[in-house]
Amino acid sequence: MGKLTCTEKVCLTCSSARYAKCNKCAKPARLPSLRRRIAPSACFQYENGRLAVCLRGHPCLTWLTRASRPEKCLHKESNLLTLLNSSSTTLPMAAKPASTRALTSRGPERWADREMLIMREMSKLIGRSLDARYAIGEALHLLSELVGLNRGRVLLPEPDGDSIAIRHAYGLTATQIASGRFRRGEGVTGRVWKSGQTAIIQDIDSEPAYLARTVERATLPQETVAYIALPLLIDGKVSGVLAAHRLRRRDRALTDDLQLMHMVAAWVAQILKINQLVEQRTSRLESENRSLKTALASGVVSFGIVGESRLLRQALRQMEQVSGTEATILLLGESGTGKELFARALHLSSPRRDAPFIRINCGAIPESLFEAELFGHEKGAFTSASSSRMGRFEQAQGGTVFLDEIGDLPLAMQVKLLRELQERTIERVGGTREIGVNVRVVAATHQDLQGMVAQGRFRLDLFYRLNVVPVRLPALRERPEDIAPLVRYYLNKINQEHARNVSLSPAALDALSKFSWPGNVRQLYNVLERMALLAEQPVLSVAEVAAVLAHETAHPQPVHNEGLNSSVGAPSTQSMLANVREYRQQQPGDAAMMAAALNATNGNKSRAAQRLGMTLRQFIYRLSRLNKLQSG
After folding, report:
1. For the chain: N or C, fewer Cβ within 10 A?
2. What's the rounded Cα separation, in Å, for the pair 613 and 619?
3. What would be the CATH architecture of the domain defined by 585-631?
4. Which CATH class, in words, describes the domain spanning 301-474?
5. Which CATH architecture has domain 112-277?
6. In 455-519, which residue ranges form alpha helices assigned H by DSSP?
7. Could you report the per-residue pLDDT of 409-423, keeping only the tens digit for each?
8. pLDDT digits 0-9 by tens, 361-400
9. Is the model's pLDDT at 475 over the cut of 90?
10. pLDDT at position 328, please?
11. Cβ pair 59, 251 in contact under 8 A
12. Sign, CA torsion 595/601/602/604
């Protein structure tokens, strides 16, 4: 068909008229045929009563400009101006950059100018973003808009290595992109990937190897269409394919397109190479980060757990095996062996490391405040409860609760703790609703819990709940080979904290290694801190160390927790336990026995509890239980 000219009623974008006429044969032509020959909608400029130039640089409009007579517009002026002003893709002439105005004002851009524009914009893309999807997509966009290399695509190998697929494209639909997958040597694209040689198909209709798998032939212009495919070389190896369509009728030499695509292919390969390097570096850094985190989580020095002895390593190995689980851990060992350090190390090496770690010393909380401290209370639950307060278990939501000295937990609280371990719910003091908690419980004690169970001072069912994974921490006297590294580690820490520069002579270090250390690591740290602060010489001699050790207890002594009753004249825990009966199961005659005790004391519950060898709390609790059983 010859050059087309349009009547006044033809609109190239809104299709207000359906026909155009051919200058050569004067036969009407359907508008869709005309639109396939021109640029997309709203890319032209209306100037001086005729179509002047394509604002996007499309060469396909130059012939239409020449064919249109000045006195006959392509479109009614009012409609065309409305179209241009409402189009989001076309800016008014005054709003365009100076470079664009200069190009449009002088007519069609020269191909060299367009190539220079492409290279300049691609250089800007590298500085703007190294994201391959954005940079390569914009480069393919430039090739399509400025030089007519349409439907550009970049194909990269699949993870299996046996096929290649489209990863970046412009002008293709999602369905077409999904269809663009080729095996090695399959079709034109597969052959380029396999051989590493450029493929130039002058006419896709006459090439049997062209499969038309990505874009069906019916969707392409009904004229001679060429196909160019180039290998992407990274470090001398074929790592992908760059391909695009071109129309043979364009007044641009094929060699120019080929040269431009070679430059773009090298640019795309560099982008992919940079992304590979960044990905490798990021992966290596992430791997190193994970390794360091693992080392910090399992490395003893990071948590103050220093030593190489067999017993310590065995305890650490057990901790590492269960750190990733939700199992309850029971730390056993003498006072000062580092149970809290182990509990914190267990928390930091678990998936809960970013959640709170809450420490509760069961021996330091008065019995009357235990429930409110652990589980919280509602407003008005008791006299001083002026507002609601979360307990320690709620504060540790998603984290770890460390129950130190669990053997000092009152019997009444043992029941509530057992409920939390079984049902993962708590109930605030004065509250009526259950609150779900997601915490991991780590308990520790220096007491013999099995002996306490036999004496009725610790619930057997709670003992089984806590004793899921028992980890015994060795005493310092059981690992004398660890004393020397501990001394060096803690002495360095003390020097940094107090701005000192104190060291030990070899004989002094040997004297410390031979001491029994009944207070374990805690006692060792205190002795080292005292010597460092009181030292008059930078190097401590064996005589100075011996003088300090002479005032330390040389043999382990039984530790008794006297709680809040350790003041002068207050009875000790052992003397109090002598007056309190051992915990026993409920008996059938308990109701009559308690009623007789109340009658004998004229209803005084405190004296009745003393007569029965109970605490007042135990007496009231058992009495309420019996009343409920009788009423039920």
Report:
1. C
2. 9
3. Orthogonal Bundle (1.10)
4. alpha beta
5. 2-Layer Sandwich (3.30)
6. 460-466, 483-498, 506-513
7. 888 888 888 888 888
8. 988 888 878 888 888 888 887 777 788 888 899 999 999 9
9. yes
10. 92
11. yes
12. negative
